[in-house]
Fold this protein.
Amino acid sequence: MAYNKTTWANGDVITAQKLNNAENGIAANAEEITGLKSDLSTSASIDSSGIISFKNEDDTTVFTLQLPIYNGGVG
C-alpha cells in the first residue's frame, strides 16, 4: 500500500489517524529497507587499479565500479 503523505499547515490538528498513518508509513519503509538489505551484495573488494567489485554470497559479481585515480594534478 502506498503511503499517503500529510501536508501540514499551521493550525492543523494532530489526530491519532494522522499519527498512525505516519507510523504505518515508517513501518512499511523499515520493512522494505530490511528486505533490500538482504538482497544487496555481502562483500566488496578493491584492487590496486581502483576497481571495486561487489559480490553476492555465492561469489558472483553483482557489479564493478572503476574509481578515478588521482595523480596529484600532474598531466
About this structure: The chain has two domains: 1-39, 41-75. The two ends are 54 Å apart (CA to CA).
